[in-house]
Amino acid sequence: MNPLRLIRRLYDWVLSWADKRYGSWALAVLSFAEASFFPIPPDPLLIALCLGSRTRSFYFALVCSVASVLGGLAGYAIGIYAFEAIGQSILDWYDAQDMYLAIQGQYADHGFLYVFLAGFTPIPYKIFTIAAGVFGLALAPFILASAVSRSARFFLVAAAIYRFGEPVKAFIDRWFNLLTIVFAILLVGGFLLIKMMLHPA
Q1: What is the pTM of this model?
Q2: Handedness of CA 117, 120, 123, 127 (dihedral sign)
């Protein structure tokens, strides 16, 4: 199957939860799962829920943020207690083994920044939550970096919906394939940024 078509189907499936009465719970579960293993970010469902009730946009952002930080803690726990059983498979799925090895010696000095960047950007946050557990990033900085970056990301999305409403979703629907490619470019760019930080010229 065409990768873009597969991603589109996953996107539509996630959006379908917005029409259910348990949409907020679905958002919480998705946010939690995405922070530790699931590939689809919660942003599309957050957008759909905010469009359905714009006055509750910031409530949905709060649900998303709290659940994502809790999911990050689950990823952290995977790194500590279940890396061989679970964490390694997640890294393999994302083909992130080289990145994992590259940051291994850097987490003591830059772990907060890595978690923050991954929490706010398209870089898979779960890779860095797991790595934080494996490499022993202190729990307090981990929670702070996660809470600030995740909240900033999701509240920005909620604020955009609250301000602009339906045109945001219409834009995503119209330009979905292009946005997916841009997302992939940003993902690669995020990894390159971290590599440059690890190995400055």
Answers
A1: 0.76
A2: positive
